[in-house]
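Hi,

Apologies if this is the wrong queue. I'm a grad student, and the batch job for Lipoprotein from Mangrovimonas spongiae produced an output file that my downstream script rejects. I'm not sure whether the problem is my script or the file. Here is the sequence I used:
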Amino acid sequence: MHRKVIFIIMLLTSLFSCKKESNEKGNPQVLKKSSQVFSFEFYDKNQERVNEILKDSEYIVVIRYKSNFDTITKNLYTEGYPERALFFHKMKDQFSDKYLEEKSIEFIMNNFSLDTILARNNRGFIFETGFNKRGENYINGIIEDFVHLKTSDTDKIRLISEKTLVSQKVLVK
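Support response: The file is valid. Your script probably expects a header line. Output copied below for reference.
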């Protein structure tokens, strides 16, 4: 029970704080796409994969995700160490890839309205969405992946994390 309380406190602390990344001059780093592997798949309500997205229709979106942290553990939200959590902070508004690549992680996390989606497993995220305008639309967000590890000194816990920009252009008919 004690470990579960510590994990929840660390989880909430991680969600509400954001490490400011900076370069040698102290300026915020521009968010770059990570080498992590991710892909988007769209399904209709009958769970059949679709290739054509229509205006005013609802879809199930699956983001498939592969992380370097999978080599540490593939289990999420478990007691004991290593403890791992995986979130997709989906932006409520849409922006082009070019616009977002000019922004820092801190700027995006603090200045945009986000919905947080928990991963069901280490392979990705599932959520529902729809589009109310034809043409170019976007699904934007940040994948946050972190692991708590025990160090050789069992009284200390180390947190390693990675945030990855995810942006997918969606053509809606």
